[in-house]
Amino acid sequence: MKKLLLFVLAFGFTLNAYAAPVYEANWQSLDARETPQWWKDAKFGIFIHWGPYSVPSFSKNGFYSEWYWRNLVDEKRVKQGYKETKAFHDANYGPLFTYPDFATEFKTELFDPDQWAEVMESSGAKYVVLTSKHHDGFCLWPNEQADRSWGRPWNSVGTGPGRDLLGELTTAVRKTEMKMGIYYSLYEWYNPLYASDVDLYVDQHMIPQFKDVVSKYAPSVIFSDGEWEHPDTTWRSTEMLAWLFNESPSKDEIVINDRWGKGCRHTHGGYYTTEYGSGLNDPSIAWEESRGMAHSYGFSRTENLADYNTGQKFVYMLVDIVSRGGNFLLDIGPTADGRIPVIQQERMKEIGDWLAINGEAIYGTKAWKKSCQWTEGKIQDAERGEYKSGFDIMQLTVNPQEGFATKEMWFTQKGDALYAICPVYPEDKMLIKGVKVAKDAEVSLLGLPGKLKWKQRGDAIEVEVPAVTPSTAPCAYAWTVKVSGVFE
Q: pTM of the entire structure?
């Protein structure tokens, strides 16, 4: 009996040693949770902004169409387009037509979730984040809290599409190898309950609604937003996150961001966020840069070809971000009838074509001891900031200002392999500085068969690069030299 008792006790201690941690509802406990490795390895995701604002799909050029309702009624938002939005709305819908009236026009009749999933997977993205609810409060899934608070059907099943848009896309995405996530706004601009009593709103609307969407769809990512009007104590964010990490169906693989209350960004939560900027420059922190393909997240009919970034520019953004240890969340804005605009599909395909050749240098990598190698000249790097900081990646690479240095190559690392990704194809030879390799190291150009000749020159290696033509080059831009056997 003593032996049996000792065995049981020992077995119990072993189980406890491997038991999942229990998180408390405070930042010290919650911040100790590591961002799951799958997200750190993924590097590239697709963001989707879609809702009733997709019906007017209008913004003052340079601003966000998903803020249509706010820009329509808030006279203080002159810079963001109040006058332009009001004039457009009155001319096309009339002054008596309110924003909630767009819900019935948001019909999504051409929405094909499997086609969406196929296009997004072809981009090389490893995760998808859909706006389950933006600041207008409209839900893309059936939710009783939304209908009750608004006093009308205010979800995609009860009005407009008559479909569970979030559920359908979740099912389609999970047929692929991508992870499915959601964007969720804590606040709602004109929710009557929020306007009258924020504490009641949080208790009776937001928290049960948050638990509803997580319990129904078990997202792998939650991109929280709309947190800035109140501290996390008002939103009761630590209470929600303790439930999320301990009890929810997503608890094992869920990834969260840092938008959980006024002052939380870059301080508490999960990965740090930046938007329409350059991201951060600290590989020790999990972070993500997000942006639309043009100026707006939601589809905006005011945007023309010149407003859209090219596929090459997106690839350079991706590589630059990954070289500094970050992830890139690139947004698409579908139309109200449920289509991904063809130009956005084309951009995703261009990124996917590049990743099909060079993905080895992106997925599962980490930042090297330096993110890039500069040419001679004055170094003027991108600005760093949370929101709309200066970031002209082409100026930093292929279109420099006179007298300024450019990023000659970016670096990523995986195991003993170093990847040098060149925005301009090297002429004849390239010198990778600050690296020493084993004598039997192998050097290759991703996408081309065979090995490249190289030699050690002090603290650098010189690589002979083969001449290629447009028809023999492995890709159209951003060529990757792989060096195996790196030990410094």
A: 0.95
